[in-house]
Design brief:
alpha/beta, Rossmann fold, 5-stranded parallel β-sheet, two-stranded antiparallel sheet, 6 helices, elongated
Length: 193
C-alpha cells in the first residue's frame, strides 16, 4: 500500500514538472511571436545585432539578420543603421565589420552605417548602441534586426534602456530553428530569474 502511494506521488510530481515546463514554453512562445511581428516605425534607427562570423564571412544566421535589415533600409531611406558586435573566438574581423561589408556590398551607402565593434552580448549591443544614438542625436525609436526567435529578449532589454522598439526579424532556417528556439527559451528564463 505504501509503495502504491509513493508511486502515485512520483507520477504526480513528474506530471506537475512536465506541466510547468510545457506551460512556460507556451507562454514564452507567445511572447516570442508577439515581439517578432511588432512593426517598427518608419525611418527608425536600425540596430543589427551581431552573430557568429567564420573568419571574415557571415554565418547563415547573421546573413538572415542582414537580409532582413537590408529590406528595412531599402524601404526606409532616411534610416540610419548601427551594426553591433565585437570580435569573438575564431573571427578574423569583428561582427560589426563583417556586417558593414555585407551591407555595403548589397548597395547600402556607408554614410548610413555606424559600426559598434566592442560588444560581446545582446545587452552590450544595445547599451553601446544607445550611447551612439545619444551622441549622434539619432531617433530613440529603434528597429532591431535579429533572428525571429531572439526578438523578444532583445526588445525586452531595449525597453529597459528607454527605447521604443519594433522588430525586423531575420527568418531562421527550419532545421536550425528547434536548437536555437530551445536555447532561447532558457535565455529568457535566465534573464527573468
Amino acid at each position: 500500500m505504501q509503495k502504491n502511494f509513493l508511486g502515485k506521488c512520483v507520477i504526480g510530481i513528474v506530471i506537475a514538472v512536465i506541466s510547468v515546463v510545457v506551460i512556460t514554453a507556451i507562454i514564452e512562445t507567445v511572447f516570442i511571436v508577439k515581439a517578432s511581428i511588432k512593426k517598427p516605425k518608419e525611418n527608425a534607427t536600425l540596430i543589427v545585432l551581431g552573430c557568429k562570423v567564420y573568419g571574415e564571412h557571415a554565418s547563415r544566421s547573421l546573413r538572415e539578420r542582414l537580409d532582413a535589415a537590408l529590406i528595412y533600409l531599402e524601404e526606409n531611406p532616411d534610416s540610419q543603421c548601427i551594426v553591433s558586435g565585437g570580435m569573438g573566438e575564431g573571427e578574423k574581423i569583428s561582427e560589426a565589420e563583417c556586417m558593414y561589408r555585407y551591407l555595403i556590398k548589397k548597395g547600402i551607402h556607408s554614410s548610413r552605417i555606424i559600426k559598434e565593434d566592442k560588444s560581446t552580448s545582446t545587452r552590450e549591443n544595445l547599451r553601446f548602441s544607445k550611447k551612439i544614438i545619444e551622441e549622434r542625436g539619432l531617433s530613440k525609436n529603434i528597429a532591431i534586426a535579429t533572428s525571429d526567435y531572439h526578438q523578444y529578449r532583445a526588445s525586452k532589454i531595449a525597453k529597459t534602456l528607454g527605447f521604443s522598439v519594433g522588430a525586423v526579424p531575420g527568418h531562421t532556417a527550419w532545421w536550425l530553428f528547434p536548437t536555437f528556439y530551445v536555447r532561447e527559451l532558457y535565455g529568457i528564463l535566465y534573464q527573468v530569474l
